[in-house]
Amino acid sequence: MAKAHILAVEDEPDILDLLQYNLEKEGYQVTVAVTGEEALKKAESAHPDLILLDLMLPGIGGFDVCRMLKGTKKTADIPIIMVTAKGEESDIITGLELGADDYITKPFRPNVLLARLRNVLRRYAAPAARDEGAKQIGSVYIDPARVKVTVGGEPVSLTATEFHILSFLVNHPGWVFTRSQIIDSIKGADYPVTDRSVDVQIVGLRKKLGTAGHMIETVRGIGYRFQEEL
């Protein structure tokens, strides 16, 4: 992890200096950008291992930067941690819907930011180390070792969080899990994610799974389960 390349996107000089100092102190390679336009160019040219993306940017805003990165094949697989000053649930939900993997609110403690960053990098480096192996349920095929998902033979591109949720559900077909159980299974206990955030991830998964999206069933009043196609 110590050699990972981080793109830090922040227009406030003091915060950017703090980010760069703490990241480099931990051994990360750091590239910086102060505008949305610069972030897009550097993400495509350098293809970092992770992007710390401030939402309040001059020019192209953080949400639009996230949307463009996730909509471009060359950068769609780069994990993004949103940095938001507001910490409002609506901002968090919007970012997750656009494909961001995590978020942290200002002001933040450097050790907390570093912990969140390491967590996201671990999920991408070893997305499903505890899973038993590749599985085929109905038209859905998931291979944890290769971080590969197909539906009817067609590849499906998922974020790390979406992949973990799908892996967890697929490995327990028919079992019903609460939102809290889903959160704990992929991020650890007491992770600060709301139930609404889990709902957003599930909605995104269903859309990406297309014709197999209905296999993720909502169990009203409880949570979700993965049910094999009839």
Name some characteristics of this structure:
8 helices; Rossmann fold; 12 strands; alpha/beta; Arc Repressor Mutant, subunit A; 2 domains; 230 residues; four-stranded antiparallel beta sheet; five-stranded parallel beta sheet
Give a structural overview.
This protein has 230 residues and is an alpha/beta fold. Helix content is 40%, strand content 20%. It contains 8 helices and 12 strands. The protein has helices spanning 13-25, 36-46, 62-70, 89-97, 110-125, 160-170, 179-187, 195-209, and strands spanning 5-9, 29-33, 50-54, 80-84, 102-105, 135-137, 140-143, 148-151, 154-155, 177-178, 216-219, 223-226. The strands form 3 sheets. A 5-stranded parallel sheet has the order 2-1-3-4-5, sandwiched between helices. Helix 4 packs parallel to helix 8 (195-209), helix 6 (160-170) crosses helix 7 (179-187) and helix 6 packs across helix 8 (195-209). The N and C termini lie far apart (43 Å).
